[in-house]
Amino acid sequence: MKVEAFIPAVLLLCFGVMLCLKSSCALQIGNNNELKNYISWEDLRVVEDGRIERSFSIKENSNWVTTNANANANATNVRRVIVVDKNGGGDSVTVQGAVDMVPDSNSQRVKIFILPGIYREKVIVPKSKPYISFIGNESYAGDTVISWSDKASDLGCDGKELGTYRTASVSIESDFFCATAITFENTVVAEAGEQGRQAVALRIIGDKAVFYRVRVLGSQDTLFDDNGSHYFYQCYIQGNVDFIFGNAKSLYQDCDIHSTAKRYGAIAAHHRDSETEDTGFSFVNCDISGTGQIYLGRAWGNYSRTVYSNCFIADIITPVGWSDWKHPERQR
C-alpha cells in the first residue's frame, strides 16, 4: 500500500481542523464558501433539558411553529431542537421519528437531542435532510445507544439477502451531519472466517460529517466509512475484522481503536481503486488496543491508502503489518 503521498495532506487537514475547532470559527471542509455550509462546536451542543432551547416545535405536517412569543419571526435566527425520549416525554419516542420531522431540503442546523436509553431501531438520515445533529448525554456516550442487529445473510423485504451495505443500524446519507455522545451499535457477534455475519453499526455516505466522542460498536465491518470527507475526534471504535472500511477521505484523531479479535483480524480496509482518487484513512494520535493478532489494514482496492501517524499501538499487530488481500499486485 502506498502511504507517503497522503501524509502531508492529512497533517495539513488535521492542523486546519483543530485550529477551527479550538476557536469560535466555523469548521469549513472543502472548497464551498457559502456561509450556510459549516459545522461548528455550537452544532454539537444543547442545553441538558432540550425543552429550554427549543424555540420551535413540530406539527404533524412538519411545519415549524413558533412556541416562544419573543422568537424572531425570521426562522433563520431561531435554534431548532427536537427532543427524543423513549418514555414519551419529548417530541418523538424514536430517533427515526425525529429525523422524519425535519423538512426536506432543510438549510439550517437541526439538533436532535436524544435522551438516555437504548433505542432499538434502524435509522436512516436521507440525503434530502442535511444539517442534522445527533446529541446525547454529554457526560457519557454510553447512556444513549442506537442499536440494531441486521447481518449480511438476513433476508430483506425483497426476499434477498441484505448484504453488507444494507445491514447498517444507522445510515447517514445527508451532508453536514454531526454527532456527539451517541453509541452506534450492531449487536451481531462475528469471528474471522464466519460467512454472512458482516454487520454494520454506522454507515456514512454523506459529505462533510463530524463525529465527536461517539462510540461505534460491532464485530465484522463495524464502521462503513463509505464516501465523503469525514472527521472523527476522540471517538471509540470497536470490532475485529475490517471494522473500519470504505472509500472515504477521513481523519481519525485522538481516537481509541479497539480490537476484539480472538485470533486474527484487521482494523482498516480501504477501497481506493485508482491513483487519481483523493481518498484514504488517516489515524493521528490514536490508541490502538485490544486482543488478537491483527493487520493494521487490508488492501480492499488496488490503491488502498491508510496512514498511522504518532499512534500508540499495543502488541496486537501481526509482524507483517499489512495484508494485500491475496492480490500481490497491491504491494505498492
UniProtKB/TrEMBL annotation:
Listed InterPro entries: Pectin_lyas_fold, Pectin_lyase_fold/virulence, Pectinesterase_cat
Superkingdom, natural source: Eukaryota
EC number(s) stated in the UniProt entry for this protein: 3.1.1.11
Compartment annotation: Secreted, Cell wall
Hydrolase recorded as keyword: yes
Gene3D superfamilies reported for this sequence: Single-stranded right-handed beta-helix, Pectin lyase-like
Domain Pectinesterase catalytic residues, every copy: 82-327
Predominant cellular place of this UniProt entry's protein: secreted
Signal peptide positions on this chain: 1-26
A Pfam family reported for this protein in Swiss-Prot or TrEMBL: Pectinesterase
Annotated metabolic or biological route of this protein: Glycan metabolism; pectin degradation; 2-dehydro-3-deoxy-D-gluconate from pectin: step 1/5
Leading EC class: hydrolase
GO molecular function: pectinesterase activity
GO BP terms in the entry: cell wall modification; pectin catabolic process
Record key words, sorted: Aspartyl esterase, Cell wall, Cell wall biogenesis/degradation, Hydrolase, Secreted, Signal
Sequence similarity: Belongs to the pectinesterase family.
Name of this chain's protein: pectinesterase
Organism per entry: Arabidopsis suecica (Swedish thale-cress)
